[in-house]
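User: Can you model how 5'-O-[(L-methionyl)-sulphamoyl]adenosine sits in this protein?
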Amino acid sequence: MNNKYYITTPIYYPSGKLHIGHVYTTVAADAVARFRRIMGDEVFFLTGTDEHGQKIQRKAQEAGKGPKEYVDEIVEGIVDLWDVLNISYDKFIRTTDNYHVSAVQNIVQQLYDNEDIYKSEYEGWYCTPCETFWTKTQLGEKSVCPDCNRPVEKAKEESYFFKMSKYQDRLVEYIENNPDFIQPTSRRNEMLAFIKAGLEDLCISRTTFDWGIKVPFDEKHVVYVWLDALSNYITALGYPEKTGLYEKFWPANVHLVGKDIVRFHTVIWPTILMALDLPLPKQVFAHGWLLLDGGKMSKSRGNVVDPVILAKKYGVDAVRYFVLREIPFGQDGNFSNELMINRINFDLANDLGNLVSRTVAMVEKYFAGAVSGGQQEEEVDKDLKALAVETNEISSDEINKLMLSNALADIWKFISRTNKYIDETAPWVLAKDEGKKERLAQVLYNLCESIRLIAAYIQPFMPETASKIHQQIGTENTDRTWKEGGKFTVKKGEALFPRIDLKKELDELESITL
Ligand code: MSP
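Assistant: Here's the modeled complex, given as structure tokens:
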């Protein structure tokens, strides 16, 4: 059956270069999108940039540029970064795109016409880096943002408000009746407690700056940047126009978001959709963060965290593998150059790279590069094949549940099992015995077939590596079931992941200044 699958990343603020932590959401969404396509789904994968608001306006001013000129340059860098990282998005939305601007105006007008918006005065605090309003009660004794700990600013201005409080009971009921709507469960419980503590109406317009979408019925006001940004998930599909995409793909299967922005996606977004009388997304999935020495990631802390530099040095797939492997399901992970180099050396160069190069070398040495199956099976082969089949089932299930790190860990268990099979069968011993020729061929066939499956399993995560492996074992067959009696014609290629001298590399990285 041809299922529709709509997956989104958050749209990124073009307020500086993205770091290795930022790329996690998009690389994760890409792996899932690729997996779904392989499984035959019709996928729509959306990403983009969130370009309005006070934060961007200020950054542009600091840079001595107009806001549009400022964002244009950075957005170009983001598009290039996704190209470098092989992100297979179907659409890139910019909130400065005309169709988005008029769609947001349409949304705000609908809310106004339905009397879900009223004019009043906002008096409270605002965190510009997070673009978030805070009340005195939420701040408590402190005058810093409860999310990011940076100072908040007092704001007092005429504003339009969205009657969010009106939807509180409906939202609680929805979350309680739909256990999968917010995942993982820990985030769901957190959000339920937050909503049950009471929702206030939401300030949805600002007048003290002008870099935003104008409120259609009162042009002194610009639309609050989160309302503008969240709407992208439907405006990208053409909403409110009926272009076919909206009808086909909404509601989204999953909005993949970092844990810092779950509240916006599970409180503001669903209540806006309720007010518009539109269906809610099926799931908002919150992933953990990649931390630098246990803290927030930032360039000023000295380490090289630029994904472009890392991809150039170690290969795109090493970066993709690292972030996806290092953030465990629902938790935070750690980044350091040492951790990354160790993963490359142990998981990629040793476990995977050596498996491929040893196998190809043996097929060349013992059978002049071509080997066929359907020969002499032995007991030890059964265990390998059973794990090959099981790995497909387990890792597919894990990807469907967005447990990507677990999926990779399980694929790597199969890689280790395949390496162990080489030790168990000792092909170099079989090669010494003319009478064991058929058995040797079968062993090498089993190794090639395991490698073929490994390439298929890692393909959504590491597409380049999968095709390099295909070239070396002479097949493009990505079918995920074990084949008996096939044939492989191998060809030695370059090492998939050359080993890195840790000490030398760390010194070199230290010396890079950005
Ligand atoms: N513009 C908003 C999203 C609007 S969506 C309607 C935004 N942008 S962001 O550029 O600040 O962040 C984009 C994504 O990167 C978020 O999902 C955020 O959680 C993620 N990450 C930022 N730093 C991160 C790490 N260090 N680790 C993992 N993800 C991180 O928020």
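A couple of observations from the model: The pocket of 5'-O-[(L-methionyl)-sulphamoyl]adenosine is lined by residues 10-13, 21-22, 24-25, 50, 229-230, 232, 257-258, 260-261, 289-290, 297 (CB under 6 Å). The longest strand covers residues 117-127.
User: Helpful, thanks.
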